[in-house]
Amino acid sequence: MSAVLLIEDDDRIRLSLAMALEDEGYQTHAVATAEEGLEMQRRQPADTVLVDLMLPGMDGFECIRQLRRTDDVPIVVVSARDDTHDIVAGLEAGADDYVVKPVAVKELAARLRALRRRGRAAASATPAVTVLTFGDLEIRPEAGEVRLHGEAVAVTRTEFRLLCELAEHPGQVLSRQQLLSRVWEYEIGDERLVDVHVGRLRHKIEDSAGKPKHLVTVRGLGYKLQP
Amino acid sequence: MRRAGLRTRVSAAFAVGALALSAGVTFVSYELISNTLFRERERAAVRATYFDAAAINGGLGGSSPDVGELLQSLDIGADRYVLLQRQGQWYSRSAGPAASNAVPQPLQEMAASGEAGAQRIRRDGEAALVVAVPVQGAGVFYEIVSLGELERTLQLLALVLTAVAIMVSAGGAAVGWYVTRHALRPLAAVAEAASGIAEGDFDTRLDPDAEPDLARLTSSFNHMADELSRRLQRDRRFAADVSHELRSPLQTLAAAVSVLNRRRDSLDERSAAAVGLIADEVARFQALVDDLLELARSDQPAHLEQADIGLLVGRVLSSRNLPADLMRTEPGTPVDWHVDRRRVEQALGNLLDNAVRYGGGPVAVRVGPGFLEVDDAGPGVPDEARATIFDRFVRGPAANARGGGDGTGLGLSIVAEHAAAHGGKASLTDRPGGGARFRIDLPMR
User: Do B312 and B291 belong together in one domain?
Assistant: First the structure.
């Protein structure tokens, strides 16, 4: 049974969501503050983290950043705030996905399943046979490894999935919608997910994120990966 | 009739004012000058006549004077004409007594009674002055002085003064035009700022130091803009607060009801039915909150970007689990549209949901140049319901027949708002062969 860490300060939401998630087959660790959540994740790492943005003490953004320092666990923001600023800030802090309250439990479960599939695809550690090379950038899909100038780069599972998707179509432009449906399994989704993740990836795999050499934007069409 | 523009009116007022002023000045000065000149000329003529009369008197004093000789001896210029009437006889320097006709009768009578006088007459189409001075022996000496030269001078003066008056009023109009252009120039900045605000740029302000004379306008304008953006911010904050305060309890409800719903089988029949009702209503409430917030934000400008319309329609169909072959593309439809992708997706999705709920399901989604149409298999919408079907919380007869339906009553008004945000509109017609045809027009750029 996979475990979910739920960080939510509203007691009623925490209680009801925990029950509903348990019904969906998740073991739920529910806590009320970011500090407790970080502590809980250190002691008993969950497979997925659900985090609210407005928390007493440390806020959700900082919590995500702290988690990301040591962990590539999929993080989903569950917030009542739906303005662009919050969504982008949450994703930039390192979240993999964003849902706005009230989210139907079935929908949330579907999101979690999609994230886990991504996680598993990356984590299935069979001996590395394939190496996709883009100049000084190396991607080993089976091993879940990315190397820049021969040095390992730490990417989250979603970032890795996005990178693999682009790497499997070298030099080919993939639209934001294609990436959304292949990486996040969204039929209709928020293209900002793709843009923010591309931005995060560039900070890791480009020598200069402002002037990307590998992961380039093709105006009006989408993104492509090139040597 | 349209009122003339401010500039035209001000220029006309300037012209009329200048004309009145210059005409007044011209008239007064003409009168003064002509009076003075005439009086001057008359005085000179009278003086000359007395002088000549004295000479005649002296001549007449002798025995048997030769009147013709006497008149000849007078030193007169070209514009003077002398006459002597003596014992009913007219004498003049030249032959031809015609000149005596010019002397008016009253003057003759007055002079005959021994009184000197002068009178202005017209002679040969020219102004002239007749001066009469009685002389010895019951005679009267007349001098007729032509004033033609003076008259011509005054005519020229009048012409010059009229020309000046016309030029001054034309100058007044030009000054008015020029002055108003300068006066109105700061208003152009106001107009620009106002249209900026109308287009949603609420940071537009006028520089209060730019035009000290318009300080009040500038400060009221800036105050209005401040107030407007404050209100807008307050509304937005309110919408955000409402959103947050409604969404949080709804999340609890949604999660709790899903827990209950899972256990419906272990509940007794009545409880299970009640849980079913709650679950449906929570879902509807959730949709209602989303739709209300969408409407609250619908006045924001569309975020236009390039989108492949075929892919967009395909995604919406697949998100509703509808077959992709419902889409019919008209010939001549461009592939890439310049639209707010999210809003067009939502508008089309709402039309499809509407067709599924009330129209017996969609039978076609037609994509043409600048429009999307959703045809359904329902009974169509009666005429009396059409005018209001895009209004908020208005449900068509089909929805009412379903006991209030499971929709929010906002779906079609969101469609209309999204179409309007693109500068287009939503409309409803009959599908040939029965059923309703909802259409969204999105102007192509």
Answer: no
